Amino acid sequence: MKRIVILGSTGSIGTQTLDIVRHHPDKFKVIGLTANSNVEKLREQIEEFRPEAVCITDENKADLFKTDVVVYKGEDGLKKIATLESDLLMNSLVGTSGLIPTLEAIKKGITIGLANKETLVLAGEIVMRQAEKHNVAIIPIDSEHSALFQSLKSGKKTEIKNIYLTMGKGKISEMSEEQLKNVTMKDIFSRPAWNMGNKITIDSATCINKAFEIIEAKWLFDVAPEQIKVIVHPEYICHSLIEFNDGSIITELGTPDMKRYTQHALFYPERVKATACSFTDLYGKTLTFEKPAFDKFPCLRMSYSVLEMGGIMPAVLHGADHVAVQAYTEGKIGFMDIPKVIAATIQKTKNIINPDINQIIEAEKSAQKTAEGILENDIRSYNSSGKFDALRRK
Ligand code: NDP
Ligand code: MG
Q1: Is 353 exposed, middle or buried (0-12, 13-18, 19+ CB in 10 A)?
Q2: Which candidate, 43, 233, 335, 379, has a CA 20 to 30 Å from the CA of 1?
Q3: How far out from the chain centre does Cα 65 lie?
Q4: pTM above 0.85, yes or no
């Protein structure tokens, strides 16, 4: 039996992970679960899975929570849960909260199933160095990276020529530049293929999610930014590809279903018969691939720019996006203002090369303040400044 801890168990990936576990009661013992504030769902999960301990990061909610299992609270509590004696830590937290618990678990030699891409966006170099030092496997759960991880069984990292990260094509990508200015939350949440958490759904619409995934891929697969290409694949069947030096292109195919990837990480290196996720009927299916509209979705290019800048800049990208998305959801700015706030924040920030983990965390917070300042001033001045062009890939 694998002893597992699930960080962010009440979220979209967390609940899908528990659904796989539910189908395999003889294979997993859940020993730790966490929520930020959704204590009702956490209570149901405690009753069903009987973990040894839980963590509630919202300290007020934690203080009021009565249960017969150990309750940790706050960020310190997350570290405690992440370092319980376990065989696998499934990190399905959203945002920066996932970074430190992952690093702590790596130092204890615990295998990581990683959905929390922010961990690698913020501190990919440090995290991968620590994983190597402690001989810890990081098994990606993000669909594209899981597909690449599985495709990499056909060759070595040093034999990769290019990586193609697939990207879907929804209603928003069909809009004209004029229509894009008025994208609504309803447009964003009418995505047909995947049902995801709020933050990643908005990030997918602006394409900054793909920018984060480029950074994630760089660290996971140890490739240069120019080896990572983005390819639009409207059918959502192919989930990223590796082109090897000998010209072979290897991929993972299947109907869009995040459970396939959580299942893969849970059972890795075994493969089991799927009982909780769907199979794919390939007859009659068509696969098409297109070039992405870099000019319509400026966030895409930002990943290459921040990787080129290095240092704290990927963390700044994340902090600025966090604030811009919040402002958009509150109706303070338009959809196409999101990349402008991010670009302006990056331009206002002085880089730190070879930062330590505290400097990275500090830079992310400080980028949030800078972005808030930009929002308080006249955002329209950034709209027309053309500053964004300076961030484009050379
Ligand atoms: P959700 O928003 O659905 O869930 C997030 C989880 O983290 C919840 O358990 C939530 O608790 C908890 N949480 C939220 N804020 C904090 C905080 N400040 N401190 C500690 N815990 C917190 O996110 P998703 O499941 O969609 O995404 C999780 C990660 O997986 C993200 O990094 C995302 O990019 C990645 N991912 C998600 C995919 C998807 O299909 N959903 C696909 C690929 C990657 P509570 O419920 O109490 O708020
Ligand atoms: Mg993804």
Answers
A1: exposed
A2: 43
A3: 29
A4: yes
Contact 257, 280 (CB under 8 A): no
- pLDDT, tens only, 86-102: 999 999 999 999 999 99
Question: Quick one: which ligand is closest to 75's CA?
Answer: 1
Please give the structure tokens belonging to residue 288.
């098409």
Q: What is the rounded CA–CA span in Å between residue 212 and residue 233?
A: 18
- Both tokens assigned to 337: 């203002």
CA separation for the pair 164, 243 (Å, rounded): 8
**Assigned CATH topology for domain 2-140:** Rossmann fold (3.40.50)
Which sequence spans correspond to the domains of the chain?
2-140, 156-245+291-389
DSSP 8-state secondary structure symbol assigned to residue 245: T
Task: Indicate if ligand 1 lies below 6 Å from the C-beta of 97.
Answer: yes
> Does CATH place domain 156-245+291-389 in 1.10.1740.10?
yes
Task: Return the number of other C-beta atoms located less than 10 Å from residue 123's C-beta.
Answer: 27
CA of 12 to the centre of ligand 1 (A): 6
Task: Read off the pLDDT of residues 27-46 as tens digits, 9 standing for 90 and up.
Answer: 999 999 999 999 999 999 99
CA distance 232 to 167: 5
